[in-house]
Design goal:
With 606 residues, the protein is an alpha+beta fold. It folds into two domains: 9-201, Periplasmic binding protein-like II (D-Maltodextrin-Binding Protein, domain 2, 3-Layer(aba) Sandwich), CATH 3.40.190.10; 313-564, Dipeptide-binding Protein, Domain 3 (Dipeptide-binding Protein, domain 3, Roll). The chain is 26% helix and 20% strand. The strands form eight sheets. The protein has a five-stranded antiparallel sheet with strand order 1-6-7-9-8, with helices on both faces. The chain is globular, with a radius of gyration of 25 Å.
Amino acid sequence: MPYARAASLALLALLSCAPARADDADFVGPGIAMHGDVKYKPGFIHFDYTDPAAPKGGEVREAAIGTYDSLNPFILKGVTAAGMGLTFETLMASSEDEAFSEYGLVAETIEVPKDRSWAIFTLRPEARFQDGSPITADDVIWSFDTLKAKGHPFYAAYYHSVAKAEKLGERKVKFSFAPGDNRELPLILGQLPVLSKKYYESHDFEKTTLEAPLGSGPYKVAATDPGRSITLERVKDYWGKDLPVNKGRYNFDRIRIDYYRDENVSLEAFKAGSYDFRQENSSKFWATGYDAPAVRDGRIKKEEIPNEEPQGMQGYVYNIRRDMFKDARVRSALAYAFDFEWSNKTLFYGQYTRTESYFSNSELASHGLPSADELKILDPLKGQIPEEVFTKQYEAPKTDGSGNIRPNLAIAFKLLASAGWTVKGGKMVDAKGAPLAFEVLLDEPAFERITEPFVQNLNRLGVDAHIRTVDTAQYKNRLDNFDFDMIVGTFGESLSPGNEQRDFWGSESADIPGGRNLIGIKDKAIDRLIDLVISAPDRNALVTRTHALDRVLLWHHYVIPHWHITYFRAAFWDKFGRPKISPKYALGFIDDWWVDPAKAAALKTK
């Protein structure tokens, strides 16, 4: 689902056609599913996980770590302030309790033929930018063309197979797609943020700015203190407030986000009442950091909220552009130095499950040996993919959790020796005497306590590994230019993987600055598997093809897998109401919760 290059003139000419008529479409409606039918039928009032009677009002305060220097979220330059996504609207809105379905937002309807070779969006006549000007077909086309040509590299990769956009009327736009099966394209175009063409006639789209761009969403920027805070306020005359996709949502009058340099300071500020809501990412903090009067007397609530959200992959990510990491045996060997079982027991308080799939916590995760249907995909790739794909189930290296990692290090020594590395003078060196040395680049001090034992184990192998923690701006710049050896990276996945896989693992994205192919993968077999995932004709085929891709990625040892949990850790001051039903695939705090006036008043008296 959810992120490429401009098509050639010849391809554009091939795909150009007369404007489609509505009766050319096999489907016309307000909602569309990736596979099968939508859950919410025409005429639905609101999503099940929202409360249309939720009161509007109040202020919520949140926290962010690091800094920001721009309010332009659509380009590579700069560090964008948190919350800016709330100020812009897209053609359609995703539901958070379906694998991948979208419903009309700026667009009133979507039309597609059976083969989904094009999509037509008809815009709502009431859709408006925040200055009151209407959203038109020209705005949609300008947004698409500009994001693809000048926006963050993500957009070019995501819209790679969209050949062109054309105006069929003041409120109607047709997108034509490159040849091939790509059922996801109508839905990823539904995620297109619509920008004002007129606004950018007098503003430079490609520059960072601290002037809030003209948006169309439920919130607008009310105040900024660069690097310290940003405040958003609800647009009282927001044009889309009564749409079914928005009923019961966006209830806070004001959202203030304060920036902190350090998670420890941020946590102490939360307990002191400096902000209202915290989604906890640290197992240590969750286990030991909330022993405070406000927690003990109930003013702060701690909850573990179950979810069915795919967890994707987090891990120590190799940059295989570096010569020392080009050999998969080296990458496999170094993984034996990470003692997850000891870390989970000693550092994480037993809260985590080891990740062993790029699509963890979902039916898309591979398991066992390849099925007969998977082998139909994998067999033609023999000789191009790791042999273990056919003979073994992937399992991350394991220990007994005692801290005695010598058996794993012995395996690592053998793998490194098979790759031509030997120990001389206590240092692991190659045939030319060059040491195996690298840096683990971090931007969060919280990861130092986790990475230090890993580095110590690497040092025991004779590997000269060390940690370097840098500030947010420097970290982003180094990642954008692939200037790192190893990082802690996260590859988020949805229940409907598709075109964004090209950005993660596709050959074309490996050399694009700012792209998400952090590993540097250039592999024709993986490109083929990505194409098969994108072209899956139904859900069963998508699951099977994703299993095959997962196996190949795992056995290449591109990352040292970390861990995941299957619930949200939420801590909040007891001033909120929330719907009785939680969304399956999201926390929904900013979108769906509200300030409960009675609770807020009672909190002030405690």
